[in-house]
Specification:
By secondary structure, this protein is mainly α. It folds into two domains: about 1-55; about 55-210, no CATH class. The protein is built from eleven helices and no strands. The chain has helices spanning about 5-25, 30-40, 45-50, 55-75, 85-100, 105-115, 120-135, 145-170, 170-185, 185-190, 195-210.
């Protein structure tokens, strides 16, 4: 891909996603949203397909990456090396939750869409990527089995934390994170009880609670 093509794609992604965020509270993260957002962004159907060939699923992934970037921006002035690991993960997770909450109803509809059974694998993959990004910011460079355990556990915490943030507010989410950080730090004690195959199910269940406010 040439530089010109890459620049066009990035700009078109931004336009499409911005339009989608405005319209998602009305249409949800569905095929209808893709079409409406493309029109609002001044993109043809073919151009929208180039940007998001997977339709709503690609838009949902772009939305997640938007929050990942916002979290890193919020963390930019913090030197993780000056914090204990426990504090690093708490700060990183809180920044990520606030980035998602900033988009309000669009995030709630996103969570509801990812709670659907056919999107469970996508939800798990997106949360895994976010957990990896947060651990890397925190300075984790593990390459053995610890690499996977840490990310699996943090991904499993982020899903219910987001549901709590959306439904009960930042204080409740912060309290929840505080009670869970010990599990991240002591993953060796309970990682045997968490199977990778369970992550998609757990993510779907917790995002479902975000969707219905339960």
């Amino acid at each position: 891909m040439s530089t010109l093509e890459a620049d066009w794609t990035e700009a078109a992604e931004d336009r499409l996603l911005e339009a989608a965020v405005r319209l998602a509270p009305q249409f949800g993260w569905t095929g209808r949203l893709v079409a409406r957002a493309a029109t609002a962004a001044g993109l043809s159907e073919g151009e929208a397909m180039l940007v998001a060939p997977g339709g709503a699923r690609d838009l949902a992934a772009l939305f997640c990456r938007r929050h990942d970037r916002a979290a890193l921006t919020a963390l930019a002035d913090i030197d993780p090396a000056k914090l204990k690991v426990r504090a690093r993960i708490a700060r990183a997770a809180e920044a990520r939750l606030e980035a998602a909450a900033a988009d309000g109803e669009a995030t709630r509809r996103w969570a509801g869409q990812l709670a659907l059974p056919h999107n469970a694998a996508l939800a798990a993959r997106l949360l895994w990527t976010t957990a990896d990004l947060l651990w890397r910011w925190a300075g984790d460079r593990a390459t053995d089995e610890n690499h996977y355990s840490k990310r699996l556990i943090l991904a499993g915490i982020l899903a219910p934390a987001l549901a709590i943030r959306l439904n009960a507010g930042p204080d409740a989410a912060r309290d929840y994170l505080a009670t869970q950080i010990d599990r991240v730090m002591a993953y060796e004690r309970f990682k045997a009880n968490i199977r990778p195959a369970d992550l998609a199910h757990n993510v779907a269940a917790t995002l479902g609670r975000a969707r219905y406010g339960a």
